[in-house]
Amino acid sequence: MSAGTAGGTENPGNPGNEALWLDSPRAGFRVGPAPRPRPGPGEVVVRVRAVAVNPVDAVPAFVRRRFVYPWLHHPAVLGTDVAGEVVETGDGVSRLAAGDRVAGFATGQERFRDSAAHGAFQRFAVLDADLTTPLPDAVALTDAAVLPLAVATAAAGLFQPDQLGLALPTAAAPERGATVLVWGASTSVGANAVQLARGAGYRVLATASPHNHELVRSLGAAEAFDYRDPDVVRDLARALRGHHLAGTLAIGAGSLGRAVRLARRTAGTGRVASAYPNPLTAARRVLVRPLGVRVSAIWGGTPAQNSVGPAVFSRYLPAALADGSYRPAPRAEVVGDGLAAVPQALERLRAGVSARKLVVTL
Predict the structure, then answer these.
(1) What's the CA dihedral at 208, 353, 314, 180 to 10 degrees?
(2) Which of 125, 251, 296, 347 is most open to solvent, judged by the fewest CB atoms within 10 Å of its CB?
(3) Closest CA to 26 of 68, 71, 75
């Protein structure tokens, strides 16, 4: 489970590691000792101070084993959202140093990685430096823990050429003269998609529950619509008259069908990126192509293997967080302390949350 040979610098002391283990596909979680990981080239080891839980962590064991992570070897350490301090850097890492406060995307569950040392639910985790963002003092670690997977998923859908293919966000992006629709903008992925699309210079329309309209507007949406309104597609089509729809990010149950209907009624690319990579999405992709609509399915881990991840985590987020133009969203709710609290947080997540993300401190 070592991540490679050591390189760079390390803080004094070498306390032991502890992880939330999943010993087999059918096993429950257990807290136990873990090897202290070392960084490989381009990696950092982070002392984890806060983790967030995501729906992908909370799926039933059968679903995880058969459909979500069928490649995962056990014993495994799950989790993707990490905030903490860098304690060691690998060869070739110059942008980060020991002592830096960071948030990063843990890739241990990804097919290309499949490594317990790179999972989030442990006291010391290995992260790719290019997927790790230094944090300003004004951003609390518990708040920053909500970002990594949501940012990666939103960035994949918005910017990858096989998804919406939009221009990347920059510190001074020009106005693009085009609109992006984020369907489900108060979700973790949606809240970050609104900010990333605005950071790239696009006008953003958003759907959310009415009690979250103020939130999504504060994140940069020009207008917000009630996704439960039976006339929402008609109202969005009116708002898009005279505008080019660069694409739609569809998040949440029922979003894909209505996003396709809207794409057929408006001028634009006809692209819809769905945050639900399931068989229904694959079937609809084939059915709607003759209608001029292109549907794609997002996998949140893909930016870890292409240029989108470094562009967002390394080049855009640090300055945007520092100047306040980007903020951690949705709101973090701390629900426990210690690795043993993570399974309890997953149970709460299964019961449903709205416009917030559950965080456990370590």
Answers:
(1) -10
(2) 347
(3) 75
Amino acid at 229: D
Contact by Cβ (8 Å): 185, 221: yes
The CA distance from 128 to 143, in Å, is: 20
* pTM of model > 0.70: yes
Contact 22, 76 (CB under 8 A): yes
What's the pLDDT tens digit per position in 41-80?
Answer: 999 999 999 999 999 999 888 788 888 899 999 999 999 9
Of 179, 160, 191, the closest CA to residue 307 belongs to 160
Domains of the chain, earliest start first: 17-147+328-361 (3.90.180.10), 152-297 (3.40.50.720)
**pLDDT less than 70: residues of the chain:** 1-14, 279
Output the DSSP codes for 84-113.
Answer: EEEEEE-TT--S--TT-EEEEE--TTSTTT
Closest among 114, 54, 42, 125 to 83, alpha carbons compared = 125
Query: Which pLDDT belongs to residue 283?
Result: 79
Residue closest to 359 by CA, chosen among 60, 46, 79, 21: 79
Find the distance separating the first CA and the last CA of the chain, reported in whole Å.
21
Say how far apart CA 240 and CA 234 lie, in whole Å: 10
Token pair, residue 171, equals 């510190």
Q: What's the Cα-to-Cα distance from 136 to each of 45, 179, 313, rounded to whole Å?
A: 19, 31, 14
Residue in the block written with tokens 């416009």: 355
Nearest to 252 by CA among 267, 232, 269: 232
Sign of the dihedral through C-alpha 282, 287, 288, 290: positive
3-state secondary structure of 24: coil
Q: What is the pLDDT of residues 53-63, one digit of tens each?
A: 999 999 888 78
Report the run of H or E that residue 134 belongs to, with start and end.
Answer: strand 132-134
Q: Which amino acid is located at 105 in the chain?
A: F
CA 208 to chain centre: 19
* pLDDT tens-digit series, residues 315-330: 999 999 999 999 999 9
**Distance in angstroms (rounded) separating the CA atoms of residues 51 and 295:** 32
